Amino acid sequence: MNPYEQLQLNKEVEEMAKLRIEIHKKRIKLSEELEKNRNNKEIQDRIIELEEESQKLKKKIEALQANF
C-alpha cells in the first residue's frame, strides 16, 4: 500500500471512529433518561438501534483494515 492509500484509509477509519464516539455519547444520554423512566420502550429501542449502528461501523472499520 502506498502512503496515499494509507492516508485515505486512515482518514476513513478516523471518520468512522468519530461516528462511533458520537453514537456512544448518544447511548449514554439515552441510558440516563432510561434510568429515570425504565418502562420507556421508545428509549430502549433507540439504544438498541444505536448499538447496532455502532457494531456495523466497527465491522466496516475491521474490514477496511483487514483489506489493507
Write the layout of secondary structure elements.
Layout: H1 3-36, H2 41-67
Top keywords for this entry?
90% helix, mainly alpha, elongated, 68 residues, 2 helices
Report on the biggest sheet.
Answer: none
- Gross morphology: elongated
Q: Kindly estimate the percentage of residues that lie in beta strands according to DSSP.
A: under 5%
> What is the alpha-carbon Rg in Å?
16 Å
Mean pLDDT: 93
The DSSP helix count reads 2
Describe the oligomeric state of these chains in a short phrase. single chain
What is the tally of beta strands? 0
Low-confidence stretches: none
- Helicity level, as a percent range? over 70%
* Helix and strand run: HH
Write a structural description.
The longest helix is centred in the first third of the chain and has 34 residues, at 3-36. The chain is built from two helices and no strands. With 68 residues, it is mainly alpha-helical. The mean pLDDT is 93.
